[in-house]
Amino acid sequence: MQYPTLADCIGSTPLIRLQRLGRETGNTLLVKLEGNNPAGSVKDRPAFAMIEQAELAGHIRPGDTLIEATSGNTGIALAMAAAIKGYRMILIMPDSSTAERKAAMTAYGAELLLTETMESARDLALAMEAKGRGRVLNQFANPDNPNAHYCSTGPEIWQQTGGEITHFISAMGTTGTIMGVSRFLKEQNPGVQIVGLQPEEGAAIPGIRRWPEAYLPEIFEASRVDRVVDMGQQEAEDCMRRLAREEGIFCGVSSGGAVAAMLRVAREVQNATLVAIICDRGDRYLSSGVFDEASA
């Protein structure tokens, strides 16, 4: 009998219907539970794909050192993938990231370097590569990031909705998820509306960014997003807590923001099937206090 490996468990995540939130709109509101991936987030898909494709191209081989700048989920996923495949992993991330994220990376055996900002983390990763200290996979410019979603996440959503999806809503960080899914869904039905989520000015929502022009991910194509929603931190956190308490869905702040954006859109349309990405699980945010009763 052929038994699966851990890598075989990446993807094929559930798509479920919300039972209470948005029920008054009369539309079908669905969420894709990416926290069910082995390392707990949607980033498992591109993390493994970027390493695998770099191997196939002959750019890396087991035993090499990989370097990546991350705000959290990609780093955890890459640490897992590196452990599976036998690479040394150096991750560079802002010191403001939660303790759970840092601990998860080191648990997989990754070496962790801390910087002040995500931009400085990206700069340091490239500087280390230039000095020959390892290979940067560069999720922000690597086409294997969106391709992973074009080949898996997008087809899964299309199949799971029976082609009935009308709106796809996703947070935008590296933008790999929304780029890959948009490309696939638009090929099936150009009428599917792609809604991207970015934080309002001043909002600090883990996993999504308003990038300065100089740091805009190279994989991002604005034409693939039909609408961009500016999301406030309070609205995202409130929806995250409601998902846990009213739907039993324990997720992070960016996922709360994605569902909050879906609820906005759902109030504007009729006879629609909307899908939002629940990109990770809430347990990696507990130390930040966002689930404390006092913050509700």
Automatic annotation (TrEMBL):
InterPro entries: Cys_synth, Cys_Synth/Cystath_Beta-Synth, CysM, P-phosphate_BS, TrpB-like_PALP, TrpB-like_PALP_sf. Pyridoxal 5'-phosphate binds at residues 73, 173-177, 254. It catalyses: O-acetyl-L-serine + hydrogen sulfide = L-cysteine + acetate. Residues 8-280 form the Tryptophan synthase beta chain-like PALP domain. Its EC number is 2.5.1.47. Keywords: Amino-acid biosynthesis, Cysteine biosynthesis, Pyridoxal phosphate, Transferase. This is Cysteine synthase. It comes from Thiopseudomonas denitrificans.
